[in-house]
Hints:
The complex is a heterotrimer. Chain B is α/β, with parallel strands linked by helices. Helices cover 25% and strands 23% of the residues of chain B.
Amino acid sequence: MDSLRFDTEGYLKDLDAWNENVALEIAKQENIQLTPAHWEIIKLTRSFYARHQLSPATRALVSLIKRELGPKKGRSVYLMKLFSGTPAKIVSKVSGLPKPDNCI
Amino acid sequence: MTTLHTISKGPSSKLLESCLSIARENDALLFIEDGVYYSSELASESSIPKHQLLFTLEEDIIARGLQHSILNKFETINYRKFVELCTFHEKVINWF
Amino acid sequence: MTKPKKMFTFISRQAPYGKDRARLCLDAALAATVFEQKVNYVFSDDGVYQLLKQQNGGSIGSKTLGSALEALDLYGIEDVFVNEASLRQRNLNSEHLLIKTIPVTNIQLANLILKSDYVINL
């Protein structure tokens, strides 16, 4: 963890430095205990980034989850429960991706 | 419903062509900044529309020393009239 | 009570990699979706080059704009238009394009602008 570099808001600087242990560590800083439900979202977010070179805003994340994991999970309340605050920001942070641009 | 289009680059930008392809008959065109070169170029006269109202901004004209070469089709206006035009038209689209 | 939605139309007219305006236009449109407004996206003039298949910005150290455009639908931007005259002038047709777009004539484009509350022309 010491060798990892973060920006001032706590986002990982080097995308390639991410692994599951790094995610656990970042999640700890955010007071989140990662469960399979979290990992599922993290995996999806990372695949979105790999495909679109874009950290998803909440709206895109919700549509993506709806498409890939079904309408039960594809709702912002579900995301809020897992990643409180502004879910899109926290998800990107834990997933080792840049802060999403278009988030409020 | 009419739109005011402002054009702020000269003829080499081809902005006028782009603008005219979607401007409607009763829209107004205002040439500002380097766009004022359109209002002095005879070469652009042939492409200039028949129906639209054409305006060009006095301050930008004077700055560039074009005051004696403005084509007749253009009405030279000041900033005050610029503001009036903006409020008169329902929409303003900037071409830059 | 929720306010009625406003209609935003973004017109992207520049080629993707030489300048950053194409990217800027996309970012602005994605930002507009956050406010739950109706957002239309139009590719016109050299902007149609943003839609070419098989682009890879990585070759010049850039992000690939086309990849981001493929996410438009996930952001709720479903009405994506392309100026068919601009395609024709550049010897392009829908088969060259990365995403599904609705071809429009200049007249249809003029009408779309008329219907819109805000037009952002980049």
